[in-house]
């Protein structure tokens, strides 16, 4: 295991075109302190978890100290925000500190979010607040635990630095770790500014570092676009199956590796509501839960257009068709796993849609319904309405669907592992908004205990964490907890 002084850094992104970012040092936080540290992410970096107790760790990730091999850089990109192109984007409150290289040669970006003003801050102060840092920290752990591609977070550093949002809050930094911070917006920026040679250079960089198997292919850029489409489809299919709404699917928030990226006003579904809008600034519902698959296609179309110096129309259309096919296939596969089905059948689409219609009609908790179903044997299904009495206003309405489900299971070649499989794909724990809010409120008073409890269950959300505190985190949310308004404000 490595210490801070033995971390091996690279700065390959900084070696690209100068127009892709601006070297700048972070602005230090006042009286920084460690809020929380994630040893699971430290393991990815081969970093000894004991560094969390080293005062230099806080100094480095509060912006007070820079390691010798770090080359802090604010990335420049652009993107479509709520469908409108905005050329004036970039790392407005973050810095790419450097790229940690493991003993196996794997590269991880080390990124400091909330590090102060950059040339891309526009009218902002470049700071992140403790509130938003906790939300992203918990969310990235929750998504990783669910097996959904995501960025990660190593630690939160709090401070006594005051910042003004709707109210006066304290600033914090989030230490984000990702395989790459490259976004659709990087390519859009180079395309719209006419830097087509640099655009090709960036595409070559992505292939070299993330898709090396494409380098010798006859049409590497077409295959690269297809890979991005495929990864995006897998990510969004996973979102839809688990009930996750991102909230701000602007192209500058879309990862070229299909990672869930830039957590802002995200939300997991409580009651199943397909038109759920988790961002109260999204007045038109552009980024509602049920719009995410279509927005994924829209965003990939924007990326495809930005890649026209490298791709022809047929190659772009092929990639977009691949996205739609993969999204449908992957979502159906995910839903079958949630229902313990191992083979595809023509009746499955109707089975899924009728269930979701019931959940919507009776405002049933999405996560707890599937987790409850994961406890019921096939023989019990047609007389299992009582298991759902705390979830359904009228359990009799569920009975016909349960009978259809039981009949569908008869087509399965082997159902002995059904319940075990379902419990591996239907989490008991998700990051509900009210739990994140409670953790934030306690942390603002200096109590980080709920963060620790949530990190434990969210890292392993399919397990039965059988102790009293954990059970409370899996309960139905209170009425007030279903109606919290979350914005992009950080």
UniProtKB/TrEMBL annotation:
Amino acids binding Mg(2+): 253, 262
Catalyzed reactions: L-histidyl-[protein] + UTP = N(tele)-(5'-uridylyl)-L-histidyl-[protein] + diphosphate; L-tyrosyl-[protein] + ATP = O-(5'-adenylyl)-L-tyrosyl-[protein] + diphosphate; L-tyrosyl-[protein] + UTP = O-(5'-uridylyl)-L-tyrosyl-[protein] + diphosphate; L-seryl-[protein] + UTP = O-(5'-uridylyl)-L-seryl-[protein] + diphosphate
Cofactor needs: Mg(2+); Mn(2+)
Annotated residues for binding of ATP: 90, 92-93, 113, 125-126, 176, 183, 262
Known EC number: 2.7.7.-, 2.7.7.108
Keywords annotated in UniProt: ATP-binding, Magnesium, Manganese, Metal-binding, Nucleotide-binding, Nucleotidyltransferase, Transferase
Example of a GO MF term: manganese ion binding
Family matches, as InterPro entries: SelO
Record: active site: 252 (proton acceptor)
Function summary: Nucleotidyltransferase involved in the post-translational modification of proteins. It can catalyze the addition of adenosine monophosphate (AMP) or uridine monophosphate (UMP) to a protein, resulting in modifications known as AMPylation and UMPylation.
HAMAP family: SelO (MF_00692)
Protein family according to the UniProt entry: Belongs to the SELO family.
The protein's name in its UniProt record: Protein nucleotidyltransferase YdiU
Organism: Photobacterium malacitanum
Classification lineage: Bacteria, Pseudomonadati, Pseudomonadota, Gammaproteobacteria, Vibrionales
């Amino acid at each position: 295991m490595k210490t801070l002084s033995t971390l091996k850094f690279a700065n390959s992104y900084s070696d690209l075109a100068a127009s892709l970012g601006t070297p700048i040092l972070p602005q230090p936080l006042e009286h920084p302190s460690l809020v929380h540290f994630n040893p699971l992410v430290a393991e990815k970096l081969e970093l000894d978890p004991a560094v969390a107790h080293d005062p230099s760790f806080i100094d480095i990730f509060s912006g007070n100290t820079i390691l010798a091999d770090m080359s802090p850089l604010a990335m420049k990109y652009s993107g479509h925000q709520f469908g409108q192109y905005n050329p004036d984007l970039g790392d407005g409150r973050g810095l790419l500190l450097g790229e940690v290289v493991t003993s196996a040669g794997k590269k991880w970006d080390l990124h400091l979010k909330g590090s102060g003003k950059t040339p891309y801050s526009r009218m902002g102060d470049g700071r992140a607040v403790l509130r938003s840092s906790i939300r992203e920290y918990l969310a990235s752990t929750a998504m990783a635990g669910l097996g959904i591609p995501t960025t990660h977070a190593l630690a939160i550093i709090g401070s006594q630095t005051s910042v003004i949002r709707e109210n006066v809050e304290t600033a914090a930094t989030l230490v984000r770790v990702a395989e790459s911070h490259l976004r659709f917006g990087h390519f859009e920026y180079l395309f719209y500014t006419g830097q087509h040679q640099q655009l090709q250079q960036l595409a070559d960089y992505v292939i070299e570092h993330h898709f090396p198997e494409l380098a010798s292919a006859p049409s590497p850029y077409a295959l690269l676009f297809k890979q991005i489409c495929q990864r995006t489809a897998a990510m969004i299919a996973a979102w839809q199956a688990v009930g996750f709404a991102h909230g701000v699917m602007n192209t500058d928030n879309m990862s070229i590796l299909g990672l869930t990226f830039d957590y802002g006003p995200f939300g997991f579904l409580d009651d199943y509501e397909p038109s759920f809008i988790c961002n109260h600034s999204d007045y038109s519902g552009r980024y509602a839960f049920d719009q995410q698959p279509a927005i994924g296609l829209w965003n990939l179309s924007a990326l495809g257009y930005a890649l026209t110096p490298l791709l022809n129309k047929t190659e772009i259309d092929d990639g977009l068709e691949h996205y739609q096919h993969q999204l449908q296939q992957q979502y159906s596969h995910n839903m079958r796993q949630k229902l313990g089905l191992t083979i595809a059948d023509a009746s499955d689409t109707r089975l899924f849609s009728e269930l979701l219609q019931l959940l919507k009609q009776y405002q049933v908790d999405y996560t707890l319904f599937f987790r409850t179903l994961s406890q019921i044997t096939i023989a019990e299904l047609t007389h299992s309405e009582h298991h759902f009495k705390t979830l359904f206003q009228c359990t009799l309405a569920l009975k016909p669907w349960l009978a259809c489900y039981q009949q569908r299971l008869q087509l399965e070649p082997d159902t002995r592992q059904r319940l075990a499989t379902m419990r591996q794909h239907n989490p008991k724990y998700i990051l509900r908004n009210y739990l994140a809010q409670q953790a934030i409120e306690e942390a603002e008073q200096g109590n980080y205990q709920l963060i620790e409890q949530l990190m434990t269950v969210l890292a392993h959300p399919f397990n039965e964490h059988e102790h009293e505190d954990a059970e409370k985190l899996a309960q139905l949310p209170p009425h007030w907890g279903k109606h919290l308004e979350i914005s992009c404000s950080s």
